[in-house]
Amino acid sequence: MLTAQRDSIRLLRAILVASVVLPAALFGYASWLAYDNSQATADRQIEQTRDIITEHALKVFESVERSLAEINEIVRDLSDSEIAAREAALHQRLRRLARSSRQIKSLWVFDRHGKALVNSLSFPSGSLDYSDRDYFKAHVAGNIGTFVGAILQPRQPYDGAAFFGVSRRRPSSDGSFAGVTQASLLPGYFVGFYAKLGGEAGGYAALIRANGQILARVPAIGENIALDPHGTLFKTIAAHPDEGVVTSTSRVDGVERKVAYRRLPGFSVYVMSGLETRVIRDRWLAQVGSYLIFGLPATAALIAIVLLALARTRKLYEEAGRRQVAEDALKQSQRLEALGRLTGGVAHDFNNLLMVVGGSAQKLRRRHSDPQDQRSLDMIDSAVAKGAGLTRQLLSFSRRHSIAAKVVDLGRSIAKFSDVLRQSVRSDIAIEIAQPAQPVAARIDPNEFEIALLNLTLNARDAMPEGGRISISLRTEALNNHGPNRLTGDYAVVSFTDTGTGIPDDIREQIFEPFFTTKTVDRGTGLGLSQIYGFVQQSHGAITVDSTVGRGTTFKMYLPRSAEQPLPEPAESNASPAAQVTRQTTLLLVEDHPDVAAVASDYAEQCGYHVLHASSAEAAIELLNTRHDIELVFSDIVMPGMSGLELARLIRDHHPEIPVVLASGYSERTATAVREGFPLLHKPYTMDALRQKLVQAINSRPVNHPDSPAR
Fold first, then answer.
1. How far apart are CA 31 and CA 593, in angstroms?
2. Angle at 262 between CA 266 and CA 145, to 5 degrees
3. Histidine kinase domain spans which residues (predicted)?
């Protein structure tokens, strides 16, 4: 298949060369004509736009000149004192005149000293000195006609947008300098007009003073910006002051443009229009592209077919590979999920059986003092403890085991547990630990984390019968929808590597299944790796395995990093155990399993409680409503109908003085119970554990009277 692909590519290249050589000259000539045409078209567009904005600017400035001439005519024969005397009427007239032109912000009349005599903005004008303004100083020396000033900011008490002044000399009756009439124009008016011209992206329009200062510009820039006096545009204007076309790069935004300029007749300003050379070039390239499409149809079609065929082939192979990987991952996930549901259900029911066996053994121990019987009971207790450990591992795999998650420093946890790991291996096995420079925090169950490390260590020990090395390292990694399970976010990666015999490929997908093991019956239960799998899943992480037979195995646990700081290590407590109840307390036991209820009732009575039993949450509610001596509730979580957690919430809402202790091992609800602050006891529990949990609950309840129940 690869040979056929290579032959096809060679053939296509030969056809491509043959197809290109003949029309190459024609294509080059057509491209040159297209380039010349694109430049000519751009010149026409730029010059047409320049003509439009020239006509617009000329009308605006001529209109302003007429307004200034009208003002001069109004005040021609008036002295400054007469103007001041008529300021109110003149103010209204200037105000009407200013409002008649959208481009005019305000109109002013100044005396020979630069003091405002009247303006269109306010009455009275005040006593501010404007003799330092450019539109005033330009006329002091002599009659220069109409002056266009620079961009200025309003002077207090006036505010608003920036402006530039257009002013004329105000002559007296004898021809001497009597002051200035001035119109403040808004640059934004010109910017708005230039923007409304529209056109494609890359257009340019500007109004610029003869000295290079920019009054208005699209695209807009900051204020008080000027042309580069050493730039191509400024030098071209100096050489050809009336009009011209030039290509230059702006020092303001660094964009190269072709610009057409023209001096506004009778005014010391220029109007400019332009187009980015990039846009002109793109037009040419687009036209050349059309030549390629229509000038070389056979070659283009052949190339497109070959490229499409190659792309589709690669895509099909890649899609097939991705589909196979996804299907395999889905099958494995469904298989593990099914095993999880099965083992979780079995373990949960088995906990109840262990509860009955352990409780019955405790009851028999109190009745029989014969040493032989005591040894048998010890064996039963040991079996119950081992069974509880197995169910905990099963529930961990199925993600139904309750965890006590908190923020921990993973590096500190590994270092603290390293002595235990070293003691669990032979002397011919070395353990090396590499720690990062900075603490790495994660929200996990530290006990489950230590058990996971221990399980990995024990597996590595058994995989290295002749000795070897275990390397444990900790690092951080940022994932973005890649890696195991398409994780995203910041993760702590705990790598565990051994130099053992490795894991064969044919069993690698089975190693996390509960009870799967390659060891003999006396060497393992097959629950070690399933515990690790359950731990990382409950921690919202993932685990990967990479192994080479004969060289070793690397497990990587990906655990989500926490932004919270780890809590300090708790100090050792010297507090005495919880005291026994000092008087008989009425306890409501809610348990649907009759044998478990019998054991729990016996435990509670041995602890000094008066026990009332309800086989359902509904029955418990009825007792709570009819009995007023109930001071404590001990309920299973998983029951038909209303759950123990729902019952606990109801009691908290309607009987907040009655503490509730819950019992179960089902994490989907126990985790919620812990988050909501309810004390939790895991099955199977001992009488001492029950005594301590109940006394803690009683001691934490609100007390209304020292010798009476809370209700």
1. 90
2. 15
3. 345-563
By DSSP bridging, strand 163-171 and strand 147-152 are antiparallel
Structure token pair of residue 198 = 């529209």
Residue at token pair 């996971």:
452
Q: Which of 142, 93, 133 is nearest to 113 (CA)?
A: 133
Residue 555 identity: F
Q: What is the DSSP string of 451-487?
A: HHHHHHHHHHHHH-TT-EEEEEEEEEEEEEEETGGGE
Token pair in block for residue 564 = 């919270």
Return d(Cα 581, Cα 698) in angstroms, integer. Answer: 9
Nearest to 635 by CA among 613, 657, 603: 613
Give CA–CA dist 437/555, Å, rounded. 22
Q: CA-based diameter of the chain, in Å?
A: 140
The pair of structure tokens assigned to 495 is 């790598």
Sorted by sequence, the CB contacts under 8 Å of residue 461 that are 6+ apart come out as 424, 425, 426, 429
CB 94 within 8 A of CB 118: yes
Residue in 191, 184, 132 with CA at minimum distance from that of residue 154: 184
Place of tokens 């199977």: 684
DSSP 172: -
pLDDT tens track for 636-674: 988 889 999 999 999 999 999 999 999 986 556 676 787
Q: Please count the other Cβ atoms lying within 10 Å of the Cβ belonging to residue 284.
A: 19
Pair type for strands 104-111 and 116-119: antiparallel
User: Distance of CA 145 to CAs 53, 65, 478, Å?
Assistant: 23, 10, 70
* Residue 242 near residue 263 (C-beta atoms within 8 A): yes
Instruction: Judge whether 291 and 281 are in contact, CB under 8 Å.
Output: no
Distances (CA, A) of 573 to 353, 408, 576, 580, 694: 34, 20, 9, 19, 20
CA distance 151 to 162: 7
The rounded distance, in Å, linking the Cα atoms of 622 and 588 is 11
Using CA atoms, how far apart are residues 334 and 331, in angstroms rounded to an integer?
A: 5
Q: Is the pTM of this model over 0.70?
A: no
Per-residue pLDDT reduced to its tens digit, 535-564: 888 888 999 999 999 899 999 999 999 888
Handedness of CA 699, 704, 708, 711 (dihedral sign): negative
415, 474 in Cβ contact below 8 A? no
